[in-house]
Design goal:
five-stranded antiparallel sheet, disordered N terminus
Length: about 325
């Protein structure tokens, strides 16, 4: 349902098209007089029918000085760190950043967007200096490490050489000791063989001779039956009486003593000692005194071998001094 306009209400007058809505009403007097125009050219009036706004003041752009400042600070940090030689591995990072930021800061200063050109250049210089010092410190540390490594390797080589020399010396010493031990063993074996050969040489049948080292030659003649004369003491019953004749000759160049070699030791077939007989015939001779070079002496004695042990017997002749004393043993049948 629409409301109708009362007939008594007046209808508003229609405004002509193209009229200015901001113009003063018709018939109204102007409130103020027009101001004089300025000397400068007036601003362009807005187009007819468009609203007009007065211009606002525009703020000046802020300088972009952050990179230059950061470049200088990082350059200082890089130089300080690079002076500590052991920190060369980390000092190049702020130095490189200082160089990069400094170059960018100088570019900003050239374009007029930054005002700290000097700080940016200082960052570039400090960055380059920090990098150079860091590289130099790195080269020094690497060279020092290499020198220490070479020294240690030289010491290790010297120690290895000393160890090898000691091992070689020990090996040679062991070889010499082995050679010496072998020589001593061979010498002992030779001496033992010589002693055994000499021992065999001093085990003789009746009628054979043996010569001692000093030239004394001793010979036992073949046993002969012996007939006692005169008084005989303790003659065993059914005993076999034999004569033992030993002749010694000094074939050496020095005089020899027969002390302790006058009476031989006689044993029967059972190894029991047999004592010499004593009669009044005067035929018994005992080796005594000494012999000059070329001199000869003979000892003569008789022994009664008991029945049952008279088929074989042995005669032992002993000569020498101390450990050099040796015996010669003859053995064989009694007839």
């Amino acid at each position: 349902m629409t409301d109708s306009v009362p007939p008594e209400s007046p209808r508003p007058a229609e405004e002509p098209s193209g009229s200015d809505p901001w113009a003063a009403p018709a018939g109204a007097a102007p409130a103020l007089a027009a101001a004089p125009a300025p000397s400068a050219a007036p601003a362009a009036a807005p187009a007819h029918g468009a609203p007009y706004w007065p211009p606002y003041p525009v703020a000046a752009p802020v300088p972009r000085n952050g990179l230059g400042t950061a470049a200088m600070v990082l350059g200082i940090v890089g130089v300080v760190l690079s002076l500590a030689v052991f920190l060369f591995w980390v000092s190049w990072i702020p130095a490189l950043l200082a160089l990069v930021f400094g170059v960018i800061g100088v570019g900003h200063a050239r374009r007029g967007v930054a005002t700290n050109r000097g700080m940016a250049i200082a960052g570039v210089v400090l960055g380059i200096s920090g990098l150079l010092v860091s590289v130099g410190a790195g080269v020094f540390v690497v060279a020092r490490i290499q020198a220490v490594h070479d020294e240690r390797r030289a010491e290790a080589d010297a120690a290895r050489a000393r160890a090898d020399a000691a091992i070689e010396a020990a090996r040679q010493r062991a070889v010499k000791e082995k050679e010496l031990a072998d020589a001593q063993r061979k010498k002992a074996e030779a001496e033992q063989e010589k002693a055994a050969a000499d021992e065999r040489a001093r085990r003789l049948p009746f009628g054979q001779s043996y010569t001692y080292g000093d030239g004394l030659k001793v010979t036992m003649a073949e046993p002969e039956p012996y007939v006692p004369r005169g008084t005989v003491y303790d003659l065993p019953e059914n005993a076999t009486i034999v004569q033992v004749k030993i002749t010694v000759v000094n074939t050496g160049s020095e005089q020899v003593s027969l002390y302790g070699s006058g009476s031989p030791i006689v044993k029967d077939a059972n190894g029991a000692p047999v004592f010499s007989l004593i009669d009044g015939s005067g035929r018994m001779k005992v080796l005594a005194g000494s012999l000059a070079p070329g001199q000869e002496a003979t000892g003569l004695s008789a022994y009664a071998l008991p029945a049952g042990a008279a088929d074989r017997f042995s005669v032992e002749f002993s000569y020498g001094n101390g450990l050099q004393r040796k015996n010669v043993l003859w053995s064989g049948p009694s007839h």
